[in-house]
Amino acid sequence: MTTPSTIFRSLLDGLKGVARASAALVALAAAGVSPAMAAPSDSGSLAPWSEGIFDIHHVSTGRGNATFFVFPDGTTMLIDAGEGDPEFAKRVQPLKPFPPVPDGASSAGYWIADYVRQFAPPGRPAKLDYALITHFHTDHYGTITPDKPMSRTGAYRLAGITEVAETIPVGTLIDRAGPDYQYPVDLRNCTRSGAISGSSGLSLANYLSFADYRLKHGQAVVGLKPGALDQIKLEKAAAFPSFHIRNIASSGIIWTGARDETHHYIPEGAVTACDFDENPFSNVLTFAYGRFKYYSGGDLPGVPHYNQPWWRDVETPVSAVVGPVDVMMLDHHGNRDTVNENILRNLAPRVMVQQNWLSPQPGEDVVVRMASKGLYPGPRDVFSTGMAPETRTAIGPIMDSIYKSYNGHVVIRVAPGGDQYDVYILNDADKRREVVKHFGPYQSK
Ligand SMILES: [Zn+2]
């Protein structure tokens, strides 16, 4: 909802941006750097994408994850289209629900589709060449309840990814288990037998109906092939030879770092029941453009609880083959069971982006680790799509020392060739989505 408090928060953040800009300009002048190189605050609309630019949009809905990519040749991709179950959110956070943005009157799927239409390459019909679901949790692909509208196909209901796909054509649908959905257990059987309860079971059954409808009608549905380079590729790949997408992990099978070889990190047979946790099975990918590299790991965990098996730490073996990146999307919304010491040491991100939708995100320990210069040297900036005020109050000044922005769509715009990139924060309180802050340029590693 657009409330006076959210407007005030935006204004306040805007003013802070101006103050930071003035301070930065003084510092830059002292350092002999041209202010035109690094104006931390802009306004107006984000300049339209043009050929050569690589855009990564972290879409703020307050209800789950959605990242929209425009590759340098205009090929497009969406990772996740989440809308978490509001009943679940109420159960875990009964006193103060996290606010949906820009409002709760329309679904997350509606807003994600609207966002994609606004920032898709201009001058051609909006489409998603690829849509990838990291794992089967509803804050990543949409919650189905019996009152959700039916697709015009009559084959499934609309929420999250199915709702986006209803109005924006999807070329290839990628998930972690398609097209047979047998790993680590028979997921179709799990939904048919009722072994997954409530909206989780309904949502997965609905997604499988969506995938089946696509398969029946000649629309691609594939599983992410761990270790592969360029399973996801540019339409005009030859024009941008330094752009590559590497599949790092899927369903607990991880790239070894050599050729396209993989190993079963989560032992086969480790999971046999339908009610297993999807998080360690998340799809993990890196996107490279020249010197620039971006990491996306879904809800991959890295800090096992005391009663959990060793393989719940998937971040450590993943980070060993990913190596240094420029921008890291925080795993599992920055939850306390994630962003462990090893992934921070190995990735050493200059910029981190957090898509969060609950008060315990980020965990306090996560912030302490992210801020630690003992784990890796140098500056680091963190950007959140939406932070609960109680989280800031509880975690305190250490948070302000690394977070540069606490709400809004977070756009990483990589310059042609990949040598540098900028971070733009777009207002998420209305559908104009104007730039409220700008950071950079950052030099790629
Ligand atoms: Zn999640």
Task: Supply the key terms.
about 450 residues, alpha/beta, Metallo-beta-lactamase, Chain A, nine-stranded mixed sheet, disordered N terminus, binds zinc ion
Which SSEs are present, and which pair or pack?
Blueprint: H1 4-30, E1 54-58, E2 67-70, E3 76-79, H2 86-92, H3 108-119, E4 128-132, H4 138-141, H5 161-167, E5 170-175, H6 187-192, H7 198-216, E6 220-223, E7 243-250, E8 253-255, E9 262-264, E10 284-289, E11 292-296, H8 315-322, E12 327-329, H9 341-347, E13 351-354, H10 364-371, E14 381-384, H11 389-395, H12 397-402, E15 403-405, E16 409-414, E17 420-426, E18 435-443
Parallel strand pairs: 3-4, 4-5, 5-6, 11-12, 12-13, 13-14, 14-15
Antiparallel strand pairs: 1-2, 1-16, 2-3, 7-8, 7-10, 8-9, 10-11, 16-17, 17-18
Bound molecules: zinc ion (ZN).
Zinc ion (ZN) binds at residues 137, 139-140, 299, 333.
